[in-house]
Specification:
It contains 7 helices and 7 strands, in the order E-H-E-H-E-H-E-H-E-H-E-H-H-E. With about 240 residues, it is α/β, with parallel strands linked by helices. Bound molecules: NADPH dihydro-nicotinamide-adenine-dinucleotide phosphate.
């Protein structure tokens, strides 16, 4: 089905819950057609879509694994064929697999790197090829405070998210004069499934604002960076962390 859009088209990876869902809703509020990507949770993605539409947007949900180029390539080819354009890409999908580095298995190392960092490559390169042709677009990737300050047990996650920042800054410099902006948002602790097992009372003592953040508080910054209000911002990392450093 040809669903060529008059609305701006946004792809959000990992949109079935948490920060990704909040980003989808904010982009819906901007009037976007939002492609809600997910991996394992179709019901979560469907609920996101309901909320995108309630916010004034349109969209669809689409399952694929961002870590697997054999999955991202046909999915993106299908999106390009049907929707013709991509205006916004939010690389949000991410996982943790914590453990002390000396005991970290290759699977834990690779899984986290492949999702956040190779996922950035698998998604951003083909989307940029499209954006470059139109000389227009915005890419925002979700890194983490763990990329910026040491965190025991997260060498894999810190490496993936720091790599994401390095890659985003370099790509931003490459495409800036082509009308495309590439930025990063680095959240601190945000209340989602990813953090539900943390001892929150202990954790709060490390945060100057003495509370953990809400997904919406990250999503509003992502929305700003995606919008024309951020037309002179590229290659930046914006922290959303309650003042953690
Ligand atoms: P959640 O665990 O709540 O949600 C993760 C989302 O990513 C889900 O939609 C999941 O899909 C999707 N996902 C995971 N792996 C893949 C994959 N290989 N391909 C496609 N989708 C995938 O996480 P958060 O909302 O907390 O985190 C969102 C992002 O923010 C992540 O990159 C995370 O690293 C980062 N972040 C989170 C912080 C926090 O405190 N929560 C702090 C700093 C950064 P499905 O449900 O279908 O499996």
């Amino acid at each position: 089905m040809d669903t060529e859009q008059t609305r701006p088209v946004a792809i959000v990876t990992g949109g079935s819950k948490g920060i990704g869902r909040a980003v989808c809703i904010e982009l819906g509020r901007m009037g976007c057609y939002v492609v809600v990507n997910y991996r394992r949770d179709p019901a979560g993605a469907a609920e996101t879509l309901v909320q995108v539409k309630a916010a004034g947007g349109e969209g669809e949900s689409l399952a694929f694994d961002v870590a697997d180029p054999a999955a991202t390539q046909p999915a993106l080819a299908d999106i390009f064929k049907r929707l013709k354009t991509v205006d916004i890409l939010v690389n949000n999908a991410g996982i943790t697999a914590d453990g002390l580095f000396v005991m970290m298995s290759p699977a834990k190392w690779d899984g986290v790197i492949q999702t956040s960092l190779s996922g950035f490559y698998n998604m951003t390169k083909p989307v940029l090829e499209k954006m470059i042709r139109r000389k227009k677009g915005s890419v925002v990737s979700i890194a983490s405070i763990s990329a910026l300050v040491p965190n025991r047990g997260q060498a894999n996650y810190s490496a993936a998210k720091a790599g994401l920042i390095g890659a985003s800054r370099s790509v931003a410099a490459e495409v800036a004069r082509l009308g495309i902006r590439v930025n990063v948002v680095a959240p601190g602790l945000i209340e989602t499934d990813m953090t539900k097992d943390l001892p929150l009372d202990n954790v709060k003592t490390m945060i100057p604002m003495a509370r953990i953040g809400r997904p919406e508080e990250v999503a509003k910054v992502v929305r700003f960076l995606c919008s024309e209000d951020a037309s002179y911002i590229t290659g930046q990392v914006i922290s959303v962390n309650g003042g953690m450093f």
